[in-house]
Write a structure and sequence with these properties.
By secondary structure, the chain is α/β, with parallel strands linked by helices. The chain has 15 helices and twelve strands. The protein folds into two domains: 168 residues, Bordetella uptake gene, domain 1 (D-Maltodextrin-Binding Protein, domain 2); 150 residues, D-Maltodextrin-Binding Protein, domain 2 (3-Layer(aba) Sandwich). β10 and β11 form a beta hairpin. The N and C termini lie far apart (82 Å).
């Protein structure tokens, strides 16, 4: 073969290789989005709205296929993503409660959750409320401390919701009876309306969408505090509740007890905030996924956070607009929050048994 032909072939090969290197990672690929809860529930509805708009922001415009793998409080889907799903960037998880479940029982995870590639997480805010006819009558937060016959409802003894309800009341020294086992927030909400329980908590979308219009405006219930935003280092207010003059739990405790909360139960509460409230939803790739995939999806998340069409649909369907935290140091940040003191984990295990 003439030398000129060889050189031309080499130049052409280099040009083709260079062009391929510059192509978006996801060009010509399909992205499977795994949701670790059943179809039709809050996690699924939110995940599908997310997927519909997320796809438009990924360089290379891959198609997105949604897969629900529910069971064991989300553990089935999380384990599948870590164990079975391909690690080539084509499978991503939209996981709920995975971070807190890992902190509570890491042995249940067949793949160490801390080794996943973290793309983003979504903080959540919880609002706590009480029926006003709770004896001898609850008209404001201060009168909750004098309440008798308080019955706090929950979903499961090991759920984050139940733990924070119990911990907050214990920290405040409010006597209560604890009833758990409601299959979801909806039947628990109905039980509260019937007076079968009189203390409960809801995520801010559910609070503003159901509790405020149905119970607060009618005078049947009042909000008493909310979970502040907490990243493991500093607290930040949740503006919608502050605008309604409802305090965070930290401020509630300080106002009524004269000092901020402290002690082991408060350490557990803060740990829960830093993990579950800060990272209720986590968007992750399996361990060992390509760096190019991680970067492409994080860039897409940043664009999604500025997407007005996504915001409009989310506000209509969810009553709030999810904002996803992402940055180049996310892996280190999340893994630090997943590392908790042994005494915290031991306390939670014992506390669950004490229900």
């Amino acid at each position: 073969m003439p030398m000129r032909t060889v050189i031309a072939a080499l130049v052409l090969a280099m040009l083709v290789t260079g062009a391929e290197a510059n192509e978006p990672f996801y060009k010509g690929k399909r992205l499977n989005l795994l949701i670790n809860f059943a179809a039709g529930g809050p996690a699924d509805i939110e995940g599908r709205i997310f997927a519909r708009h997320f796809a438009r922001h990924i360089d290379g415009a891959p198609g997105i296929v949604i897969q629900n793998r529910d069971g064991a409080g989300g553990l089935v889907g999380t384990n599948y993503l870590g164990e079975v799903a391909p690690r080539d960037g084509t499978s991503v998880g939209y996981l709920t409660a995975a971070a807190w479940n890992y902190v509570v029982d890491p042995a249940a995870y067949r793949i160490d959750f801390g080794t996943f590639e973290f793309i983003a997480y979504q903080p959540a805010n919880i609002v706590y409320f009480v029926r006003t006819d709770t004896r001898p009558g609850v008209k404001d937060g201060a009168s909750l401390l004098r309440a008798t016959g308080l019955v706090a409802g929950g979903l499961a003894a090991d759920s984050s919701k139940d733990l924070k309800i119990r911990l907050s009341l214990d920290i405040l020294g409010v006597p209560y009876k604890y009833v758990t086992g409601f299959r979801s927030a909806a039947p628990a909400r109905l039980a509260l309306q019937r007076g079968e329980i009189n203390f409960f908590s809801e995520s801010s979308p559910s609070y503003f969408g159901s509790i405020e219009p149905a119970l607060v405006k009618s005078g049947e219930a009042i909000p008493v505090w909310y979970d502040p935003i907490y990243d493991g280092r500093t607290f930040a207010p949740f503006k919608p509740m502050d605008e309604q003059r409802v305090p965070s739990f930290v401020d509630f405790h300080r106002a009524l007890k004269g000092a901020p909360p402290s002690g082991l139960k408060w350490d557990v509460y803060r740990t829960n905030l830093a993990v579950d409230a800060a990272m209720l939803r986590t968007i992750v790739l399996p361990p060992g996924s390509p760096a190019a995939a991680v970067n492409a999806l994080r860039n897409a998340i940043e664009r999604l956070n500025r997407d007005e069409e996504f915001a409009k649909e989310a506000l209509k369907a969810l009553q709030f607009v999810p904002q996803y935290v992402t940055n180049a140091n996310l892996n280190a940040q999340v893994r630090s929050n997943l590392t908790v003191k042994p005494e915290i984990r031991s306390f939670v295990a014992d506390y669950i048994k004490q229900r």
